[in-house]
Amino acid sequence: MKLNYTGQEKVTADPQKVWSFILDPNKVASCLPDTQDIVIKDDRNFDAVVGVAVGPVRGKFKFAIQLVPDQANNKMAVKLRGGGLGTAIDLTASANINGQPDQTTLLDWQGEANVSGPAATVGGRVLDAQAQKLISSVFENMGKKISEGA
Amino acid sequence: MAIESPNLEPKGIQGLGKAIKRKEDSRFIVGKGNYLDDINLPGMMHMALVHSPYAHAKINGIDSSEALKVPGVKAVITSKELAGAGLAWVPTLAGDKQMVLADGKVLYQWQEVAAVFADTRQAAADGAAAVQVDYEPLQAVVDPYKATDADAPVLREDIKDKMEGAHGPRRHNNHIWTWDVGSKDETDQALASSEIRVKQHMVYPRSHPAPLEPCGCIGDMSKATGRLTVYMTSQAPHAIRTVLSLVTGIPENNIRVISPDIGGGFGNKVPVYPGYVCAIVGSIVLGVPVKWVETRTENLTTTGFARDFHMDIEIGATKEGKVTAMKVYTLADHGAFDAAADPSKYPAGLFSICTGSYDFPKAYAEVDAVYTNKAPGGVAYRCSFRVTEASYLIERSMDVLAHELKMDPAELRIKNFIQPAQFPYPSALGWTYDSGDYEKTLKVALDKLGYEELRKEQAEKRAKGELMGIGISTFTEIVGAGPSKDFDILGLKMFDGAEIRVHPSGSAIVRAGTRHQGQGHETTWAQIVSEELGLDVDKIIVEEGDTDTAPYGLGTYASRSTPVAGGAMALGARRIREKAKKIAAHLLEVGEADVEWADKKFSVKGVPGKSVTMSQVAFAAYTNLPQGMEPGLETTYYYDPPNLTFPNGAYVCVVDVDKGTGEVKVRRFVAIDDCGTIINPMIVEGQVHGGLTEGFAMAFMQEIAFDAEGNNLSSNFTDYLLPTSLETPKWETGHTVTPSPHHPIGAKGVGESPTVGSPAAFVNAVVDALAHLGVRHLDMPVTREKVWKVLRGAGIDAF
């Protein structure tokens, strides 16, 4: 099941601060909702165990997450692959990092997910809304934490 | 003291035509049925399966280490372990082979990848969740029309470039077979010279039998005796025993298959599933009984689906509405393996009944089957092999033709019916119809409905902008497979056996090779024997489902029990009666030629009052035999039917459509069936009610749907809907009786007629309600959303 989402997050910090945040896997990991375990592997890769609830599919999902920065083009991508309880999720979230004249930054983001297994079948009717909420909350958390100078 | 004959006067001979209560129901009503999951054996372990989330993926590795750490988990097997036993792949009933557990790749979502064995069902499920599988997703083929594109990925790498299949040449790696029947050239010529030609594309969507009891199995290999006992939810236990022997190498005498009470089958419990094989292998390896019972989702996503026929039809006719020819092309989506349960010679089943009840001079039908990344199957869901698809096609198409001709659909049908004098009727596609009086049956239905008045009401309502429709389906089935010259599955001829043993005190035990799943055999077989032998129906017990005791038979599916096993039952009883007549002559002290069987007893011709009952004869068979006669009163009869039977019916449906919401309400549904001789009218009515309800579900509610990546979107009962009493319409049933001339008691079978005949009546009614808006066809399921879109598209004001 292929899902696509877009959104925008205004961050009250300049692009430099944004970059320093999103290049730190510890900080990116802290933006994931309901994390139960984080293992940082190197400065671009970490594993996360996340609590997921999609309709009747509820439990721990394990993801391998990779940060793919493209600073020259002001772009950042996060690739997430994994799953749990028979469900497989492949998700790429990318954002254009646009500095604004007022020293703020706009994150124009888009998410593309491919979901297979019970979350797509048993949870199919609620998956779309749940996935959108999940991705939105990651960027919201990110915006909030950067704005707060975390 | 010598045993004396008890009071042997029969109290309750309840033979054919008697609406007696079902003998089996008392134990079900008090909760004393014995279903597979009720069986628990000492030391039994439980099995759970690991399923693929992907519809098409390469497997790079399977890691069971975490699963084996789960408390209670004892073992995990994959295809590698099965290969060691020669069971990585097993033959399907359709001449293909299928993976038991994924071998290097998965070909459909939810495919079985590994089996986990544990002390409890919960531990097995936890273990299955802990198995780590490294998948590499591949492009999935979901649309059957794209399966044979030049750039379509090869699904079945095991048969890549092997272009000769079980049913002839393959023209693409994802092509399975092409099957055709009839004369293409003559049909093309007849169409070319027809005054009227109509074409229609229609899809009979993938559906699922969804029995309330899912599939399950207990493998019990005794290391002490070397004997394998398999408890299995099987509609065909004897065939299963033979297949198990052939694939495992265990001698057939060392295999006992017990099919306990079954909570609905509808064709879903005919094939051999990976779970069965794994539970048996688990028992052999672990030395203890192993139980596997499916979840609802496993049942809906992995076991035998039905239909998935994508059909194009062209019909030719004169301006007056006399049909001249029919040409059909069908694309059949078989999923990842060809696991359809059809007789060997008929890969598209009996789809060639698609000329229906009509006298088509010329016809041609062609079917292509393809592989896709979906679960395998193609079972006969409450129908004789592919007959539902055929009946829906012709009955929907007759309405399309009526629409084109601006003719009343009842009038068009009557104009084209095969006439009573034409029977036995040779159809253009090669069948010999046994009997029927189609016009009479339709007229009974139309009269019961008040058809003319309803047509007037429809015209008045339409003038006021209200939507009402009437749909007719006058179907003919083909059931009772079948005669051994043409019908076999895996080489096993499709006869069936009956064993009748009459005890000294005038009671009897009857066993059959069939296995009922709600059809009422424990009552109807007893009624046939009661009719033929004059025994009290309450003194006849019926047993089925244990291969150690019941005679061989191909099982219960495709409406074959009454046409085949019912024949064996009647002829077996008559064979007993022949011997009984000799004993009666001995008791009556007359020559056999002076004895006649009349009024359910043996009498001396011309001497009223001098008679003996079958019970008295039975006692004598063990106590007072003629000199030299073999004692006892029993027989086993195997019946090989000379032809199939052709039940038919006329169904008429009236619907009201809400122009605001698109909701369709079935106002009335009249079902007049002609199933030949009726054994038990109450059981027939129950069968018709159940079948109509399933047909209603298919027409309005059900589809096994997939997204573009092959995710199954109908994996549970919130997405794959079953009708409850709230949605189900009231059924008005009735009968005409045209006995089958070749069946021993004239019966044709009825269990599947309503599922076969009703979907077209429902859809025809909805299309009829919308016809003036330019609607000629709607594919099932006809949901509110679909109708709502039609109404809004036609600019109909919701209020």
Write structural notes for this entry.
The complex is a heterodimer of chains A (150) and B (799). In chain A, 28% of the residues lie in helices and 50% in strands. Chain A is α+β, with helices and mostly antiparallel strands. Chain A has one domain: Alpha-D-Glucose-1,6-Bisphosphate, Chain A, domain 4 (2-Layer Sandwich). In chain A, strands 1-7-6-5-4-3-2 form a 7-stranded antiparallel β-sheet. In chain A, strand 5 (75-84) and strand 6 (87-99) form a beta hairpin. In chain B, 57% of the residues are buried. Chain B is globular. Chain B has 799 residues and is of the alpha+beta class. Chain B has 3 domains: 42-140 and 214-262 and 269-302, Alpha-Beta Complex (Aldehyde Oxidoreductase, domain 3), CATH 3.90.1170.50; 305-481 and 643-793, Aldehyde Oxidoreductase, domain 4 (2-Layer Sandwich); 496-639, Aldehyde oxidase/xanthine dehydrogenase, molybdopterin binding domain (Aldehyde Oxidoreductase, domain 4, 2-Layer Sandwich). Chain B has 18 helices and 35 strands. In chain B, the strands form 10 sheets. Chain B has a 7-stranded mixed β-sheet, with helices on both faces. In chain B, strands 11, 12, 17, 18, 19 and 20 form a 6-stranded mixed β-sheet that branches. In chain B, strands 23-33-34-35 form a 4-stranded mixed β-sheet, with helices on both faces. The interface between A and B is medium-sized, with 19 and 22 residues.
